[in-house]
Design goal:
This protein is mostly helical. The chain contains 13 helices and no strands. The protein has one domain. The radius of gyration is 21 Å and the shape is elongated.
Length: about 280
Amino acid sequence: MTTLTETRRPAAAGRRTTPATVLADSWVIAKRNLIKIKRVPEILVFILISPIMFVLLFAYVFGGAITPADPEAYREFLIAGIFAQTVVFGSTFTGAGLAEDMQKGIIDRFRSLPMSRAAVLIGRTASDVVYNVLTLIIMALTGLLVGWRIRNSMFDALAGFALLLVFAYAFSWVMAYVGLLVPSVEVINNASFIVIMPMTFISNAFVPLESFPTPLRIFAEWNPVSTVTQASRDLFGNNLPMSAPSDAWSLQNPVLYTLIWTVVIVLIFAPLSIARYRRTSA
């Protein structure tokens, strides 16, 4: 007769975990998440509609009020900020997906399978990169329609898109950790809104920083959303000609500062998320 301890032992206990098996298991999880696009296309539709609405809203409703002398220049200035805001908000799908899996008991099924524990989180965050790629493509096409243009080389533009995706991937680990802490999808949506909304609006995503009061301007200068936005603008060649450059080191070196934040976030929240997942699924 098997003991209670033997009954509860996960099937993965006897399987040796190697980098190759982790990658293979992560691909299976990522594929499982991407299949939802085909089976539930409404998810992708709503993901893509939101950034289109933001581009059109800020370009035509607020653009004339913020820079009435040159609304076309503001549209070019705006697009990088919309890119940054959207990919950061896109990271909430990682937390919401994990919270939903926890709520529905799918994590219990994963625990019974001979698979790496880390693969569930790696596959989840990797699949959300695909969502962000699709979102950036749609936003770029919408931006071209409202007057946005890439003024630098194509290599610089691709580097700008890559930096946005890398930063979004790092931020998805933050949301993965939060998604494992909260009890439901509703909570993760509210919690992410409280964190992400101030970060995106107290930044240079939509307006130049010289219009901010001093305390908010200092926060915005060192806000990583500001630096990933500024780095994208520099790479796209979309800075406002009338906007004064900031003296802050972070905005003088936005690519380096953003990459530093990216590495720090992953180094902190990836181990925390994996450890939390192992405790939750134990």
